[in-house]
Amino acid sequence: MTKDELLQRITARKLKSDDLDAIVEIDYKVLGNRRPPYWKQKIEEMGNEKLSKSLVVEIDNAVQGFIMGTVSGWEFGVPNTIGWIDTIGVNPEYQHKGVATFLFTSIIEEFKKDGVENIYTLVKWEAWDLMSFFKTIGFTRGDMINLEYKLK
Length: 152
Prior knowledge:
Blueprint: H1 3-8, E1 10-14, H2 20-31, H3 36-48, E2 55-59, E3 62-71, E4 82-90, H4 99-113, E5 118-121, H5 128-136
Parallel strand pairs: 4-5
Antiparallel strand pairs: 1-2, 2-3, 3-4
Helix pairs in contact: 2-3
């Protein structure tokens, strides 16, 4: 199947609590760990937020990717015109086929509805594939600095 054929079969919708099993499975396929309690809590937190913009993509009526994001609520002096991408995951079978870009484009539309002007995310420095993806879709270094305090 070509990338264009795949993109014709893909749809995005709001993430629901019923998507838990599919998200756990995608996470397992990507990272090799099954973490149902972690994802259950994360979905509950995202679902309870009025400004959650979390989405899933379905291909042939099956969840094959997700993106979790929120609109800032003036935390730490960050205005509510800031959107945050927390997590993105795509079934390895559909990686490098435009699915993650489709997810990002879809969440941008959700952010625009709330007047978001800038989108932020955090990426580990060593995650070159993820850094490359974000750079390809237009991310640059932002004006915030990640600070860390290590507890040996």
